[in-house]
User: What shape does this take?
Amino acid sequence: MRFPRFTRTPLVIAALLAPFPALAQMEPGFWAYPDQPGLDAAALAASCETGFSLVYADGSAQSFLLVEAQETTALWLDSERTCETNADNSMTCTGWVDNGDGPVEFQQVTRFLLEGEALRAETLTEGAANDPVVTYPQPCPADAIRAAFRQGMFPRG
Assistant: This one.
């Protein structure tokens, strides 16, 4: 039996209107990870000027924090991670973090969800007692990133 053409049209339209998985919203670029969704422009810029992650197309990332040391303030490369996308809308990442005492290896799993219009990230870090850490990834404005980089960078070493 052949169905009339118009009966298939709503299915195609419904498929196109279905939301993309939350993880698909994590585009390459500079991201802040505040603990609140939907920061206004000024609060988001302030957050990005003090710390952000540079997320690459493959999901790997480098994170930078603005720190004071040696009588100056500059960006510090505080972590690097490589990530693999999982079938359940999560990413498993391995890498290192340096909180000032030298690099320490870590592994974490971050699950991405939509909370209303906001992207929500729940991160579990192997061996950490304060899991999960909940953040709301938001793309940084270009002016805030330029302002952060104007502070300079501490060399790794």
In short: Residues 1-20 have pLDDT under 50 and may be disordered. The beta strands are 29-32, 51-55, 61-69, 72-85, 90-98, 103-115, 118-125, 133-135, 138-139. The chain is about 20% helix and 45% strand. The first helix runs from residue 9 to 17.
